[in-house]
Amino acid sequence: MGKWKVFAVCVLTTLLAATGCKSSTQDSSANADSAPSVARIGDFRGDSAYAHVAAQVAFGPRVPGTPGHDACREYIIGRLRAYGADTVIVQEATVKAYTGDMLPISNIIAQYNRANTRRILLAAHWDTRPWADQDDNAADRDKPIPGANDGASGVGVLLEIARNFAARQPGVGVDLIFFDAEDYGRSGGFYNHNDTWCLGSQHWAETKVPYTSGNLPVYGILLDMVGGRDARFHYEAFAHENAPTPCLKVWSEAKRLGYGDMFINTIGGAIIDDHVILTRAGIPTADIIELNNEVTSSFPPTWHTLDDNLEHIDPHVLDAVGQTVLNVAYNEKTF
Ligand code: AHN
Ligand code: ZN
Question: How far is Cα 113 from Cα 85, in angstroms, rounded to an integer?
Fold first, then answer.
């Protein structure tokens, strides 16, 4: 794009929306496939989110009770403090897994624009699965997964959103919640093992810290497996039924920003995830999750395998998800 064309686009964008043109000029690689004339707020960088993913993977698996888990916890808390959160709350507990293992967990909560009583919630799980039980290689199925997509991707996007909030506070109040012990659940079998998953959010729902029943966020958005190469995001059935408002906001904002090919307006499947716990707790929550992969018709091929590594993460996917969620937050009604 020529210098004058960039200038003209900036003037136009500024006139139309008074939001400036930072993201369309400074991150041309990550935004190349979307129209630069669409008004975007903030400066979400897919490569910065990717760097957060890489940092988490470098700690090793983030299985509760392991050194990688401890290191990642400090990393998330440290980034949130550096990115100017009004408060960072760490809810610590010990919970019992279905295996009998006692898990030391930490749910991490960061508040932005704490003064506003009208709030929304953005969430991701930060722990990783202790077993690659879906791996093709049977000898690897008792090893922990790297969790680049399943764990690190949602956290990476939320931390890059936090960096944006440090530069420009959202008008609505925003709480970021990083749930622990989502992925220690019992897989497969005839019986329903739903309550063996999402142990961190289930524990959180007992107190709903920092809320009182009268001041819950108006809705939530969960990010889970949001960095896979060639990802497409369909509606999750439970969210579409019980949390239509955040679903419509996210999918329509994605379309407006030029990501209509990635965010598909049909139901892709039904799953148990932290959004189910949040919705039951009184915060209707959407789930941005890859659950209808072209190859598997379910989660991506790397799901719960040792291949869930950086090689299969695409910064452009992180960028699309991050820009979408950030713009939903910045455009949300403030009272
Ligand atoms: C179940 O497989 C029961 N729930 C999927 C939620 C999940 C697992 N997200 C990441 N890992
Ligand atoms: Zn998982």
Answer: 8
Distance (Å) from CA 286 to ligand 1 centroid: 15
Q: Is residue 10 part of a domain?
A: no
Q: Which ligand places an atom closest to the C-alpha of 185?
A: 1
Q: What's the farthest any 2 CA atoms get from each other in the chain?
A: 65
Which CATH number belongs to the domain containing residue 250 in this structure? 3.40.630.10
* Under 8 Å between Cβ of 166 and 327: no
Distance CA 167, CA 160 (A): 11
Residues with Cβ within 8 Å of 286's Cβ and at least 6 positions away in sequence, in order, are 219, 220, 221, 222, 236, 239, 243, 246, 247, 249, 250, 275
Which residues surround ligand 1 with Cβ inside 6 Å? 150, 183, 185, 197, 224, 271-273
In sequence order, the β-bridge partners of residue 220 are: 121, 285
pLDDT per residue as tens digits for the range 59-91: 999 999 999 999 999 999 999 999 999 999 999
Sign of dihedral through CA atoms 143, 137, 50, 152?
A: negative
Judge if pTM exceeds 0.85.
yes
Write the single-letter amino acid at 331: N
The enclosing H or E element of 165 equals helix 154-167
How many angstroms separate the Cα of 245 from the Cα of each of 176, 194, 267, 327? 19, 25, 15, 15
Residue-number span of the structural domain to which 295 is assigned = 28-331
> Could you read off the pLDDT of 204-230 as tens digits, one per residue?
999 999 999 889 999 999 999 999 999
Dist. CA 186 → ligand 1 center (Å): 10
CA distance 162 to 112: 8
Domain annotation covers residue 291:
yes
Percent of the chain with pLDDT over 70: 89
